[in-house]
Each structure stands twice: as C-alpha cells, then as structure tokens.
Amino acid sequence: MRGIIALLIACALGACGPTQEKANAQPAAPAAAFTLPARPAELLGGMAQSAYVAAVRAAAVQDFTTSYGPCEAVSLRPVRFDPYLRMVDPMDPMALGIGPEAAALVWRESIEASGCGRISMRNLIAARQPGTDQPVVAPSVPGASRVSHGVVRSMLMPLAGAAGAVTTCPAGQGEDFLVVDTRITRAPPRTDDWTSPWDEEWTLRMCGQRVLADVAFTPTPATGGYGFVVRNPRGAGP
C-alpha cells in the first residue's frame, strides 16, 4: 500500500516517468526576467541566490508545462513566500528527493505562471536537511488550495479513484494522474480560520482527460487537523 501511495504522490506532483504525451512534448522556453527577493542565508545554506532563483524558475516552468502541455514561452511572477509551513512534517521523500528523514528547514514559493492562454499558481516546496548545504525544490499542490503538503498524500488515492470513475484510458496506455489546479469555492470567514469548514474544486487529469472534483473539508477539533470528502467528479474535456 505504501508503494502505491508513493507512486500516486509522484505522479500527481509530476515525478512519474513520461507518458506518451510528455515524451513527445518539446521543452518549454525558459522564463525571462524572473527574479526573487533575497532569501535568508539560513535557508539557502551554501547555494547562491542566483542558483536558487534558477532552480525555482526551472521547477515552476516544468510544473506548469507538465500540467498544461508544451508552451513556447512561460512567464513567471513571484506571489508569496512562506518561510515556515504549518503541518508539513513528515515530508514525502519521493516528492522532494531528500530521503526519508524530515527536513529541518521547509518553505514555500508561490509563483504565478502564464503562457499559451493559461494562467495558474504553482506552489513549490523547498527544503534543506541537516548536514546539507543546498536546498531542493519540488512542486506541491498547484492553485489556491489551503491543503498542506502532508495532507495531500492521504487525498491522492480518493482523487485518483474519482478521476478513474469518469475517464477511460486508451488501450495500451497506462494510467497517468495529475493534479492540475485547485480553487476555493466556499471560503472560511477568515484566511487564518482553521475551525470552519470550506470547499474546493480540484482540476485533475487522467490519461489526457480533465476531471473536476469537489472536495469538502471539515476541521476535526479533537486532532487539530481536518478531514475531507471527494464529491461529484465530472469530465471537463481534454
């Protein structure tokens, strides 16, 4: 079961091997004129700011084109920097490529990506483990979702099941599952309110077909977390 969950995480966050669609895609042009404010040295360790910016740019462009297909030019704009995330431990080693140990320093870069008629928020998780001098950067859940990186792992199997219920993979093609975008459809009264329920719409892709699914989140005061229910999956075209 752990292996299946890990595979779904890797696929949903763009870390699977290439499907036929991805294999035929041409590399996207690098984003031009992208920069970030200086990040704290305690986060970057021995990595130069310029190298970190390049890593963030590459991860955001790859995440965008994995979700939407090849694009000749992708423009990026930094939107938000969260130096320390809540509810991210333990980090998933396949998603971050940092091994099974929990990362000592974890943060998020939210980057608005646009190109070829598409625009979406790409949320990148960065982490630096004890004893390493450079962070790694990997995609997390795109869009406006309030869900933490750690909770995503428990959501992917239900989401993949919902997508599979309304899609058909062509003969000979393995299942290809991705989370493409998310948006909040019913917000809590305040952005810092984690005691009220809220709803989101998740855009998924399986075997080249888009699926929309509603996800209802309900806080669980006894544990300090929240539960979720996936509802109403429906096809949304290619």
Describe this structure in words.
- It is a single chain.
- The model is unreliable at 1-11, 15-31, 86-95 and 97-101 (pLDDT under 50).
- Strand 7 (209-220) and strand 8 form a beta hairpin.
- The chain has two domains: 19-139, no CATH class; 149-235.
- The strands form two sheets. The protein has a four-stranded antiparallel sheet with strand order 1-2-3-4, covered by helices on one side. The chain has a four-stranded antiparallel sheet with strand order 5-6-7-8.
- It has 238 residues and is of the alpha+beta class.
- The chain has helices spanning 2-12, 20-24, 41-44, 49-68, 93-96, 149-165; strands at residues 75-82, 105-115, 118-128, 136-139, 177-186, 198-206, 209-220, 225-235.
What's the structural blueprint in terms of helices and strands?
Elements (H helix, E strand, L loop, with lengths): L1 H11 L7 H5 L16 H4 L4 H20 L6 E8 L10 H4 L8 E11 L2 E11 L7 E4 L9 H17 L11 E10 L11 E9 L2 E12 L4 E11 L3
Antiparallel strand pairs: 1-2, 2-3, 3-4, 5-6, 6-7, 7-8
Notable characteristics:
single chain; 238 residues; alpha+beta; four-stranded antiparallel beta sheet; disordered N terminus
Overall mean pLDDT score?
A: 80
- How many E strands? 8
Instruction: Please give the order of strands in the largest beta sheet.
Output: 1-2-3-4
What count of domains describes the coordinates? 2
Shape: globular
**Can you count the helices?**
6
User: Main beta sheet: strand number and arrangement?
Assistant: 4 strands, antiparallel
β-sheet strand percentage: 25-35%
Secondary-structure-derived class: alpha+beta
Q: Cα distance, first to last residue?
A: 30 Å
Radius of gyration: 18 Å
- The topology string of helices and strands comes to HHHHEHEEEHEEEE
Share in helix: 25-40%
